[in-house]
Predict the structure.
Amino acid sequence: MSDVYLGLPSFPAAARVATKDKRLRANLTRATHTIRDKRAKAVDELEDWSELREAGKAIKDRTLRHLDEYLLQLEAKVTGAGGTVHWARDAEEANRIVADLVKATGEAEVVKVKSMATQEIGLNEALAAEGIAAYETDLAELIVQLGDDRPSHILVPAIHRNRTEIRDIFRDNMARYGRPAPEELTDTPADLAEAARRHLREKFLRAKVAISGANFMIAETGTLVVLESEGNGRMCLTLPETLISVVGIEKIIPSWQDLEVFLQLLPRSSTAERMNPYTTMWTGTTEGDGPSEFHLVLLDNGRTDTLADTVGRQALRCIRCSACLNVCPVYERAGGHAYGSAYPGPIGAILSPQLRGTGTPIDASLPFASSLCGACYEVCPVAIDIPEVLVHLRARVADTEPGHRVERAAMKAATYAMTHPAAYRAAEAAAVRGRNLIPKKIPIAPAKAWTETRDLPELPKQTFRQWWKETHS
Ligand code: SF4
């Protein structure tokens, strides 16, 4: 990942501040509850939802097992159809490739389709450093960009803003980026959408270069697929002369038949729609139809390392629907910014520490940003067992990062006791004898924070062995 998000405070520190922001919590609660209720209804309409979910999981797992073959197949098909494929090991390489491609066109501005991959690598900031202005065209991304803000949700990046805040952002900042907001702008959704539409139209009509991600890449034909709701994507993907798509290597699926499954899973899980309003597909270039130059930048940026982890690799199945965010009690209270990454919520808690490693305070804290309630797993359309990966990553952090000395010492002591029966018996007997001396709250850190909100379980009057001897002999 890029270093755009690094240096941010750990999750507990950021969440401590965010949970005190009443307006943020009200905005989040209203929005997440609305989306989650709608999603539940949309999913209930399909009798074969659980079979579709299993199919999605199986397709993704099979693809990941043969990722190398499918990627080479995709490269050959895209190249054969007139596109150019670039391979990027990390964020820096991807940003360099894109900046050079834009410069080669002689342009100094680009329009963008909403893309998590380009947020992950900090592309806008990298292009700005090269004197290239990148304009977001998704409505929520536009709000975030005009407000000099960071996205806080995968699907609704400005979910932390209410419509009055959005009106103020439009009024104060639209003129800096192009067509100003109308003087009499109100905070009704129709007015806000109209102001954004007029502001963006100028950019669509002027743009010579567009940058996108993709929801899926179909290996058998080299076709890229973008699903969206506003039509801004369609404008960016068809009007400019040059199209550059930056896509994570895990977004590949083998065939069109596989796409059928995901076209049912994704819209219902994300926007609670039976079908999304715009689905744009393109294969290389076609003379007289759409961009005449197409570049595909295939992004690794930690994905190969993630694939090597047999438990953690299931995170690569993610289709970025955001259903797990909308049901997560931790996300609802802390908001997306506390996760310090382009990927907030439960998926961010398992994906960011795998893509970036657990060497920074924010990444080492993310696997602990969960109550392990399992709601995320229940709603995930590709059945990613997020709690399983969280526990797996917690073990990795506890084993490798400083700051978990007490846990490591406790585990070592437990391992010794459990592999030495005499020591275990002696510890049991000592605990039972001293049971009345063990306090309910422990006033010393780190146990203090833990016992402040929990009661220590009461120790029984006799050990299991004593009880067994008494009742079975
Ligand atoms: S982890 Fe599952 S529920 Fe969460 S965004 Fe990814 S696909 Fe959706």
Remarks:
- The radius of gyration is 25 Å.
- The pocket of iron/sulfur cluster is lined by residues 269, 318-324, 347, 379-382, 384 (CB under 6 Å).
